[in-house]
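Fold this sequence, please.
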Amino acid sequence: MAQHLAYLLYALLYPNRFLLVISAMSPTLIERTSKQRREEVQTLEAALLETVLTIVDESIAKGDFTLPPYMNRKQVAFANWSTSFGTIALLTNDTESCECRRGLSLDRELFNNTNLILDGLGWKPLSSEINTAALIEQLLSEIFSEEREMLESNGISLDLLAPHDTTTDPLDNFFGTHS
């Protein structure tokens, strides 16, 4: 959960850098990049991947996670990254212009999706066993207090920590009301 929160905080604090991952990997840009720069990027990516793989390994060692027989560690890392990246990229800007995104909250949906992926992988504790908002609050207080202060000084607060209405579905208008 902490890695997903860290990625969200980075995206909120540095939105232009966050979105650079798309353009930085475009074939046109890559072919114009020096071999030395490409190697530097690969080294940094490998270090980042190793950090995530260490999280997977530690969770396996503690008994919180069992690697599915149809996946390897890198696939688990990719599943987590793509969940965070996709959610953040789709919900960062102008959600009201797209009916499917209207009414959705970036941080709330990120952690809903994070819970879906982690629960689907059987990663303990399951979301039904913890209070996600309380865990996020703890992480913000104990690990990410500096980033939280930076967000607050920019007038950004995390919706996940605010009370919300669970009686209405933001997609009702898109898919039709539920009966």
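Residues 24 and 135 are 33 Å apart (CA to CA). The two ends are 33 Å apart (CA to CA).
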